[in-house]
């Protein structure tokens, strides 16, 4: 057994804890039988240790991890995490490796961190923050200031589970361990890149959060920009937190809206009533809890440029939408066509396309190859590999870093600020109504007239 990490879950009674955090922990403990974890749950309910233990067991069972639940010591402490005395009582006596996981809404997390003082936190305590991290660049900076007044940056974990996705991590090996890819990985050979994460899921009862966020902030500002950073980064000297995060951070610093023209480089749309997988969906504006005056988009598309010598001139299209039928979830790298083809060859000369499916992992390379019939006639052929699901789900991968005290897969403070800086011109243009709010039928591929991706 390794030394136990104490995971203090602030918001232990909440949805995030039972739906994401505990199942991820269960999966991790099954994969790593030697890992030792102690849970201290904190929330406002009057629960007993046994009641929290039941929540843990149920969540673990959803990952076939019932046996692992027996290895976890569970304690519950009734706590108002915005009150100094309660926080003192909760943190008194904590020793060893401690992670404080904020599984609470951002406003409660902010109230808690401004109530905490360094003397309440044992040396080495990690603070684990969920998205959304702030609401704009200035608020993210302020949050960073408060957090790093409590612990050093290397102990702050800003969770973005897309960094733990096996597809994102597979980009590293694919790029840096294959001489046929990395030397071509620049504007010299690559024409454009699409990072698409459409979902058939609609609102799923999350209006309280989603109606204020929208697709741009919910997915592009956070997850898809992180994927872009991994795809576009220079080779880091190592995959430790310093080198890896310096490399991804440098990409984000160089990223801006294409042509500095947010109105021309973004689209937004909202779904109307339709049907997904045989189930009727109401219009977004008729979903319970939605404020129709908010103009929240459920599909966003943006084009960015990474302004450095490697990438200048290559459009990176990022798109994410809800209630999309047969949704695409992939990274698509479009290579340039060759400059010249010898006379005598006919058929397809389009540039190669490399696709990374975002779970289950699959890589596919479309090339121009000889047609079986005629050796001088080229047609498209696809070489593909199924890469499976990855050993750990994305959340479990990220959590494993937290429990090890390794922030490599956590978003660094300045990167979180950059992500807000990058999308700000688009949010402002949308606020000024410079971009129309298009509509698409729930269950369709998106608004008519938008480019097709498949
Ligand atoms: O498909 P995954 O891994 O659940 O990630 C997508 C989800 O990521 C979350 O962060 C978003 O808030 C959700 O709206 C989205 O559905």
Automatic annotation (TrEMBL):
SUPFAM superfamilies in UniProt: Glyceraldehyde-3-phosphate dehydrogenase-like, C-terminal domain, NAD(P)-binding Rossmann-fold domains
Coiled-coil boundaries: none
GO cellular component, one term: cytosol
InterPro entries noted in UniProt: G6P_DH (IPR001282), G6P_DH_C (IPR022675), G6P_DH_NAD-bd (IPR022674), NAD(P)-bd_dom_sf (IPR036291)
The keyword Oxidoreductase is assigned to this record: yes
Domain Glucose-6-phosphate dehydrogenase NAD-binding: 8-170
Domain of life where this protein originates: Bacteria
GO biological process: glucose metabolic process; pentose-phosphate shunt, oxidative branch
Signal peptide (from-to): none
GO MF entries: glucose-6-phosphate dehydrogenase activity; NADP binding
Glucose-6-phosphate dehydrogenase C-terminal domain sequence ranges: 174-448
This protein's UniProt keywords: Carbohydrate metabolism, Glucose metabolism, NADP, Oxidoreductase
Protein name, entry field: Glucose-6-phosphate 1-dehydrogenase
Native source species: Microbacterium hydrocarbonoxydans
Taxonomic lineage: Bacteria, Bacillati, Actinomycetota, Actinomycetes, Micrococcales
